[in-house]
Specification:
By secondary structure, this protein is of the alpha/beta class. It has three domains: 133 residues, Rossmann fold (3-Layer(aba) Sandwich), CATH 3.40.50.300; 68 residues, Orthogonal Bundle (Helicase, Ruva Protein, domain 3), CATH 1.10.8.60; 90 residues, Zinc Finger, Delta Prime, domain 3 (Up-down Bundle). It has 20 helices and seven strands. α5 links the parallel β2 and β3. α10 crosses α12. The chain is extended. One of its GO terms (biological process) is DNA synthesis involved in DNA repair. DNA-dependent ATPase that plays important roles in cellular responses to stalled DNA replication processes. One of its GO terms (molecular function) is DNA binding. Keywords: ATP-binding, DNA replication, Nucleotide-binding.
Length: 403
């Protein structure tokens, strides 16, 4: 029995099998062009866990018949790595053979340790491929960054993860059709992986070890990963029921209920950016000008989630939920815009009044464009009695008078 971890057994064997990185590996894209031109140089792969950084590094070594040495900056010292770089230098000099040194979590090396790579990278003695989940602009030396290419990998989508699970179930390197997942278990693993292929494959492997049945059900997977499913099909009813519960809890100014429904969604595997988008929408629809800062807070939460991901980003969403629940409420903007939109759709052919038309040419001015327009800044408090609505909507108001 092969005891190699499933994630290693089903690792892509060529670049065409790598999923989710079409912006780098698709036809005409940067890494694809390098492969076609036979060019190999040092690079930094920046992306979330399980997005394919290690796989891409290994495939480069395979493609160019280079020696491959892998280290983790979390557990390896720079002294050991310098020893291998020296050996790589000898191989290059004696046999003209390239060596790829792959450093996982390269951001964990301090600036002085990173400097150790510079002479070897600059001379081409080694091909350095560093992997990082942190923004290289902040975590890596500018001198090192100037000598490498930086490529950003995307998190794997829900569909990408499902394809990877399916590949593991059906290919000879995986289970070769001997094991199956129920539809609920399949979707659950894809959700809880949060775009991390390694998490999905580990959950699948542990589930097969926990059950002797060919068909693995949702209950088995839940027991293995110690998480409960919310029957959370993204297109299903419960998905919309729970987001509705969150929305109505915030509208009802109940921060405790808001936190509960937020936690329900996150722990069930909901995309945190989907939740963030809904909170931005709530800030506009249900708070609006009653507290304009609500939109700023919601956007900041969205940016935080996008920047740091889960689980750290969960607290940004929680803070936003509490703020929105406690904020004063107003749907004035929402209702006013709906009325304005309704009028606009009924009067799309209504001409713009001549006095507020743009008049960039002499002919337009001769035709009366802009004639009679009163420039507000020429009047006290920049206020002037002037009509801005089309003829058939004169006097129409959508907002309550502001006293």
């Amino acid at each position: 029995m092969d005891k190699t971890p499933l994630a290693d057994r089903v690792r892509p064997e060529n670049f065409d099998e790598v999923l989710g990185q079409e912006h780098l590996l698709g036809a005409g894209q940067p890494i694809r062009r390098l492969l076609e031109e036979g060019v190999l140089f040092s690079m930094i792969l920046f992306g979330p866990p399980g997005s394919g950084k290690t796989t891409i590094a290994r495939l480069f070594a395979q493609k160019f018949s280079a020696d491959f040495v892998s280290f983790s900056a979390a557990t390896s010292g720079i002294v050991a790595i310098k020893k291998f770089m020296g050996e790589a230098e000898n191989r290059k000099r004696l046999y003209n053979r390239d060596t790829i040194i792959f450093i996982d979590e390269i951001h964990r090396f301090n600036k002085a340790q990173q400097d150790a790579f510079l002479p070897y990278v600059e001379k081409g003695t080694i091909i350095l491929i560093g992997a990082t989940t942190e923004n290289p602009s902040f975590e890596l030396n500018s001198s090192l960054l100037s000598r490498v290419k930086v490529y950003m990998l995307n998190p794997l989508s829900f569909d990408d993860i499902k394809k990877i699970i399916q590949r593991a179930l059906t290919t000879k390197k995986g289970f070769d059709g001997r094991r199956e997942l129920s539809p609920e278990a399949f979707d659950f693993i894809a959700h809880i992986s949060d775009g991390d292929a390694r998490v999905a494959l580990n959950a699948l492997e542990l589930s097969t070890l926990a059950s002797h049945e060919k068909l693995i059900d949702l209950e088995t997977v839940e027991q293995v990963v110690q998480k409960k499913a919310l029957r959370y099909d993204k297109a299903g009813e419960e998905h919309y029921n729970v987001i509705s519960a969150l929305h109505k809890s915030l509208r009802g100014s109940d921060p405790d209920a808001g936190l509960y429904w937020l936690a329900r969604m996150l722990e069930a595997g909901e995309d945190p950016l989907y939740i963030a988008r809904r909170l931005v929408r709530f800030a506009v629809e249900d708070i609006g000008t009653a507290d304009p800062q609500a939109l700023v807070v919601a956007n900041a939460a969205k940016d935080a989630v996008d920047f740091i991901g889960r689980p750290e980003g969960d607290l940004a969403l929680a803070e936003c939920v509490v703020y929105l629940a406690r904020a004063p409420k107003s749907n004035e903007i929402y209702i006013a815009y709906e009325h304005a939109k309704d009028d606009a759709l009924k009067t799309l052919a209504e001409p713009v009044p001549l006095h507020i038309r743009n008049a960039p040419t002499p002919l337009m001015k001769k035709l009366g464009y802009g004639k009679g327009y009163k420039y507000p800044h020429n009047y006290p408090d920049a206020k002037v009695d002037q009509e801005y609505m089309p003829e058939n909507l004169r006097g129409r108001k959508y907002l309550k008078s502001k006293k």
